[in-house]
Design a protein that fits this description.
Shape: globular
Radius of gyration: 22 Å
Distance between the termini: 35 Å
Order of helices and strands: HHEHHHHHHHHHHHHHEHHHHHEEH
Structural class: mainly alpha
Largest sheet: 2 strands, antiparallel
C-alpha cells in the first residue's frame, strides 16, 4: 500500500494539526460511547482524556514506531459493569474501575515478559497469514451491523431513516471521492470532508423540518450547543474540568474488601487474555499497511507493554481500559498517512479537547447516520486489509480452505461464549477455532 507519509515522516505543522483532528474524529465516537453505555456517572470527556494519556504511554513504549491510537475498549464493558454490580457504592465502583484496569494491564505485562524471553517465532507459527488474515477481516466485518444501523438513524427520534440514509451516503460518497480523486491535502483528509458534508446535509434537512413543521426531516439535536449557552457566556462555557475517575475513587478506597478485589480480578483478567488475540491481529494489520513488522521492531513485548500500561494510565483518569483501535488503523490505510507525529498530536489533542466543551459538543452534534457512513469505509478497509493478508495463501489446499472458512463463518455468525462476567468475543472464538483447525491440519502433506 503506497503511503504519502511514512511512519518517520513529518508533515508541515498546519497539516499535522488537520491530520490529527481527522484521527480524533475517526476514533472519538466509539471512545465517547463506552462510558455512556456503562453509565454510573462516567464522564465521556474523562474517557477521551484517558485515551490521549494511554496513547502517549503506548507511543513511548513502542519507540514512536507504531502509528496507532488507543481508545476505550468495548471488550471490557461487562467487566466495568461488574465493578458497580451488587449494590456497590458509586465511589467503590470507581475504585473497581481502576483496580480492574491495573489487573488487566498486569496480564499484558506478564505476557510481554514471556514474549521477551521466548521471542515471537512461536506466535508466527501459531498465527500464520492463513489464521491472522481472516481474523483481521472479522474485526471489520463484525462491526458491519453497527455501521449499517447508524447509517439509518439520526440524533432525533422522529427523524426518517430514509433521510438519515441520504445524509450518511453523502458522507460516505464524499469520503470516497476525496480519497480517490482528491488533490494534495484533500486526498489526505477524506474523513473530515465526509463528516462536514454529511453533517451540513443533516443540518439543512433539520432546518427545513423546523420551518415546515416536519419532524421526519429532523436529524440533528441543536441542544448540544444551546446547553453551552444556557447560563450565559463565561469561562465555563468554553473550559470545563472532566470528572476524572480517580477523583471519585478516592472516597471509595476505605470500602475496599478482599472479596471485591477477587470479583474485579475474575471480571477483568480473563478478558485481557482474550483481548490479547485482538492486539496481535491489529498489529499484524498495521504492520502490513506500513510494511514493517511491529512484532519484531519495536517488538510484541513493547506493544503489549504500551497497551497494558496505557490502559492502566487511561483508566486512572477515564475509567475505561484502552485498546488499539481498528478505526485508527483504517484511517492510516485510507488517508495514506502513517506519520507517528500525527498520532502524537492526536493524543495531545484528545487531552486538550477533553477540557474544551464546544469541541465535545460538536462531536456530539454529528448525527449517527453521518458517522455510520464514515464507518462503512473504516470498517470495510479493516476487512479488506485482512483479506489482503491471505492473497498469497493457496486456497486450493483443503487445510487452508478449512481454516479460513472456520474463522469467517464463526466470526460473522457471532459465535461467542460467556462464563459468568467473562465473555469470549466472536473475534476471539473465531481466532481460537482457527488456530485449533490449523494445528490439526498442519501435518497434511502437500500433494506430489
Amino acid at each position: 500500500m503506497k503511503l504519502t507519509y511514512g511512519v518517520k515522516d513529518k508533515p508541515k505543522f498546519g497539516q499535522t494539526i488537520i491530520f490529527a483532528i481527522q484521527q480524533l474524529l475517526a476514533i472519538m465516537a466509539a471512545t465517547l460511547v463506552v462510558p455512556i453505555i456503562v453509565g454510573n456517572g462516567m464522564s465521556p470527556a474523562a474517557a477521551l482524556f484517558g485515551a490521549g494519556v494511554g496513547t502517549l504511554v503506548y507511543l513511548c513504549f513502542t519507540k514512536f514506531k507504531s502509528p496507532v491510537f488507543l481508545g476505550s475498549s468495548f471488550a471490557f464493558l461487562g467487566s466495568m459493569a461488574a465493578a458497580f454490580a451488587g449494590g456497590v457504592s458509586m465511589a467503590l465502583g470507581y475504585v473497581g474501575l481502576i483496580i480492574g484496569a491495573v489487573l488487566a494491564g498486569l496480564v499484558y505485562v506478564i505476557i510481554a515478559i514471556l514474549v521477551k524471553i521466548a521471542g515471537v517465532n512461536w506466535l508466527n507459527k501459531l498465527m500464520p497469514p492463513v489464521v491472522i488474515g481472516p481474523t483481521v477481516a472479522i474485526i471489520g466485518l463484525s462491526l458491519a451491523g453497527n455501521a449499517v444501523g447508524d447509517l439509518k438513524s439520526g440524533d432525533v427520534a422522529t427523524g426518517s431513516p430514509y433521510v438519515a440514509l441520504i445524509c450518511g451516503l453523502i458522507a460516505l460518497i464524499v469520503t470516497i471521492l476525496c480519497s480517490t480523486y482528491g488533490k494534495k491535502m484533500i486526498k489526505l483528509i477524506p474523513f473530515i470532508m465526509g463528516i462536514l458534508a454529511g453533517t451540513a446535509a443533516a443540518t439543512i434537512f433539520t432546518v427545513i423540518g423546523d420551518v415546515m413543521g416536519n419532524d421526519a426531516l429532523k436529524l440533528v439535536d441543536f441542544s448540544n450547543f444551546t446547553n453551552l449557552w444556557a447560563n450565559g457566556v463565561g469561562l465555563e462555557t468554553f473550559v470545563t474540568l472532566p470528572d476524572f475517575t480517580f477523583m471519585t475513587a478516592l472516597d471509595g478506597v476505605k470500602e475496599i474488601t478482599f472479596d471485591y478485589i477477587v470479583t474485579i480480578a475474575v471480571a477483568y483478567m480473563p478478558v485481557a487474555l482474550v483481548v490479547f488475540a485482538e492486539h496481535v491481529a491489529d498489529h499484524k494489520n498495521i504492520s502490513s499497511i506500513i510494511e514493517s513488522d511491529l512484532l519484531e521492531d519495536p517488538g510484541l513485548h513493547r506493544t503489549l507493554l504500551g497497551d497494558g500500561v496505557g490502559s492502566m494510565a487511561g483508566a486512572f483518569f477515564g475509567g475505561c481500559p484502552n485498546t488499539t483501535y481498528g478505526e485508527s488503523v483504517a484511517c492510516v490505510a485510507i488517508s495514506g498517512n502513517a506519520s507517528v507525529i500525527t498520532t502524537l498530536f492526536a493524543a495531545i489533542g484528545a487531552i486538550l479537547i477533553a477540557f474544551f466543551a464546544p469541541f465535545v459538543a460538536f462531536v456530539n452534534f454529528i448525527p449517527a447516520c453521518v458517522m455510520g457512513g464514515i464507518c462503512v469505509a473504516l470498517y470495510g478497509f479493516i476487512a479488506v486489509s485482512g483479506l489482503k493478508m491471505i492473497q498469497k495463501v493457496d486456497l486450493e489446499k483443503n487445510r487452508n480452505l478449512f481454516v479460513v472458512s472456520t474463522i469467517l463463518i464463526c466470526g460473522i455468525g457471532g459465535l461467542s461464549l460467556s462464563f459468568g462476567q467473562v465473555t469470549v468475543t466472536s473475534i476471539a472464538c473465531a481466532l481460537i477455532l482457527g488456530i485449533i483447525v490449523n494445528l490439526i491440519l498442519s501435518r497434511e502433506k502437500d500433494a506430489e
